[in-house]
Structure formats: C-alpha cells, structure tokens
Design goal:
- This protein has 144 residues and is of the alpha+beta class.
- It has a domain of 83 residues.
- Helix content is 37%, strand content 20%.
- The protein is built from 4 helices and 4 strands.
- The chain is elongated and about 135 Å long.
Length: 144
C-alpha cells in the first residue's frame, strides 16, 4: 500500500491538472474619436467679435386670424448694452426682455408711420404735401 501511495506522489505519477476556463480576450482598445469642428452660430461669432446681434428666431401667426401673431427674438449681451445706452432701459429692474420689447415696438411704430406717410403722400390728402410726376421721355418719369 505504501508503494501505491508513493506512486501517487512519485515522479512517475501522472497528474491530471484541473481544467481551466479559457482566458477571455482583452477588449480591443477604444477607437479614437474624430473630433468634428463645431461651427459657431452667428450669435457666437458676433459675441466673440464684441458686436451687437439680434435675430428673429420664430414667427407665429394664428391661422384663424392672420392679423394676430408673435415674434420670438434672440440677442446677445452687447445688443442689450447698446439699447441701455440708447435709453431703452427705463427702470433699474427692467429685464432684457422688457428692453427688447420697447425697442421692437419702436421699430414697429417707425414702420407703421413710414407706411402711413407714404400712403398720405401718394393720395395727396395731406395738406401741404403733394407729389408731382413729370414725363421726361424714353419711358421715364421724374417724381418730386
């Protein structure tokens, strides 16, 4: 029996190693991400240059009443600063939106007044204002 035990542990003994699971392969290294150049918006470009910028972002019109609508505007801080210097800030706690709204209303008034003045000038209804058209030949006219 001792010989059997010696054979088990002896040089001639055959040892069956325990089966092992295959090693998992290392994941491949992550692919290098290509960095896309992010294009700047008009607002960012103007802001970087220190220029004022404002734009109409959205225009909503009521399909049931085409006379009703709204504008959504976007602006940069330089534009607000210019409006404040021009007197569009009335109270110290005016928000940027209130300042922009005053400016936009002024623009709209100017458009309305210009249109009104043109209409009045063309109709000849305004006293002291008249339009004279003179044919100067060759299909051209002089308007004064």
């Amino acid at each position: 029996m001792l010989d059997k035990i010696k054979n088990w542990f002896g040089k001639d003994a055959k040892v069956n190693p325990a089966p092992t699971a295959p090693r998992p392969e290392a994941p491949p290294p992550p692919k290098a991400k290509t960095v896309k150049a992010v294009e700047k918006t008009e607002k960012e470009i103007a802001t970087d240059k220190g220029e004022p910028w404002v734009s109409i972002v959205k225009l909503d019109i009521d399909p049931e009443n085409l006379h009703q609508g709204s504008f959504e505007l976007d602006w940069n801080d330089k534009f607000i600063a210019d409006l404040v210097r021009s007197g569009y800030m009335i109270k110290k706690d005016d928000t940027d939106a209130e300042i922009i709204d005053r400016w936009f209303q002024t623009i709209c008034r100017h458009v309305v007044m210009e249109t009104y003045e043109q209409t009045q000038a063309m109709s000849g209804a305004t006293p002291g204002r008249w339009t004279q058209v003179r044919d100067i030949g060759d299909g051209r006219s002089e308007v004064s």
